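Hi V.,

Quick status before I head out on leave. The structure for the redesign project is tokenized and pasted below; the design run finished overnight.
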């Protein structure tokens, strides 16, 4: 095996620069900080731009609005684009044909971008075959083939899972993740956006483990105008989830988003608690939860894969919300997750604004990355 592949075993350990503006930065949120100190909570609505102060684009089907949104996505992906894409362009500079050395160097660039050894090897098996058949002869054609191969990885995961139907109602989403990934702010942004789309949304504060977690979600609910069902701190989270579904059905809600305690994927007791929450909701409402969103931090690299595997063992994860993409130069982790886990990326976080949680569009993402 090539030496760089051996070195790649530690590719998740490269130092990452912190997001310049992502509100889910480590230490900024009490539920998303290993210190778990509510007195230092910077992620509460009082210390973040309130939803009322933030503009949300309407008429997003209009070309100008779409262009603005794409431009912002491209800007927020600058670190990744200036990382491996720039290296790739420098590699291609002055090259008129594809040779084995170029392919080896390109393969190394992608692995070091946290795309993962197995993901890169699968892509390059096909590329090397096409090169051997003279179907790819120029570097620019190789770049386009690589772009298409990455899109295919996302499309395969999406095809297997299907889209979000938002039916039946209330449509129940259970949100899970470790501490520090931006789980609560992701929930708040998602609730706000769904409300902007005309849906009746309810939040359920099933994180009864951390001090001030309930209060924090209630403050977000007040700021976004979304009702919150909660019990006192220390209550059984399964009971909170049960009552939340009951209230949602009684009040005619369209979507219910259930917050859970941030937990390490190695904490067996808390992972078992997730299973119980899921069972209780299923007894209250057939098919609930309809979605289980796992929130992952893009800056953690391949460690995100380990987290995903452990959470998938505890509960059936149906979608990934990937935060802090504006804070990493290794955007390849997105493709690695889609390929290795076969779970679709549902949302990506690219900044601090409420609209900076974006539904994931594979073509839009790859275009923004490569342009």
């Amino acid at each position: 095996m090539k030496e760089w592949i051996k070195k790649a075993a530690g590719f998740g350990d490269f130092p990452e620069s912190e997001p310049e503006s992502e509100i889910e930065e480590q230490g900024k949120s009490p539920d998303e900080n290993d210190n778990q100190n509510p007195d230092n909570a910077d992620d509460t609505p009082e210390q973040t731009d309130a939803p009322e102060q933030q503009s949300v684009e309407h008429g997003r089907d209009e070309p100008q609005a779409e262009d603005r949104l794409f431009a912002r996505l491209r800007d927020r992906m600058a670190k990744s684009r200036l990382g491996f894409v720039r290296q790739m362009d420098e590699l291609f500079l002055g090259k008129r044909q594809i040779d084995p050395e170029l392919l080896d160097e390109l393969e190394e660039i992608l692995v070091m971008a946290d795309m993962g050894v197995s993901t890169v090897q699968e892509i390059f098996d096909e590329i090397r075959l096409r090169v051997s058949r003279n179907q790819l002869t120029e570097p620019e054609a190789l770049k386009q083939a690589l772009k298409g191969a990455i899109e295919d990885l996302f499309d395969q995961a999406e095809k297997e899972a299907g889209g979000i139907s938002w039916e039946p109602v209330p449509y129940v989403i259970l949100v899970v993740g470790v501490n520090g990934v931006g789980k609560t702010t992701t929930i708040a942004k998602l609730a706000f956006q769904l409300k902007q789309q005309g849906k009746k949304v309810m939040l359920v504060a099933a994180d009864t483990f951390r001090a001030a977690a309930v209060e924090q979600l209630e403050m977000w609910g007040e700021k976004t105008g979304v009702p919150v069902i909660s019990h006192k701190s220390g209550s059984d989270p399964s009971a909170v989830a049960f009552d939340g579904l009951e209230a949602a059905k009684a009040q005619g809600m369209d979507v219910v988003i259930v917050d859970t305690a941030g937990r390490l994927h190695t904490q067996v007791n808390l992972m078992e608690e997730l299973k119980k929450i899921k069972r209780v909701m299923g007894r209250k409402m057939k098919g609930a939860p309809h979605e289980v969103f796992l929130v992952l931090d893009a800056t953690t690299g391949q460690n995100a894969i380990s987290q995903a595997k452990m959470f998938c063992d505890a509960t059936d994860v149906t979608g990934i919300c990937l935060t802090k993409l504006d804070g990493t130069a290794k955007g390849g982790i997105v493709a690695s997750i889609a390929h290795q886990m076969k779970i679709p990326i549902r949302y990506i976080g690219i900044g601090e604004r409420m609209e900076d949680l974006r539904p994931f569009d594979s073509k839009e993402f790859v275009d923004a990355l490569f342009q």
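Above is the designed sequence. The chain has 13 helices and eight strands.

G. will cover questions while I'm gone.

Best,
W.
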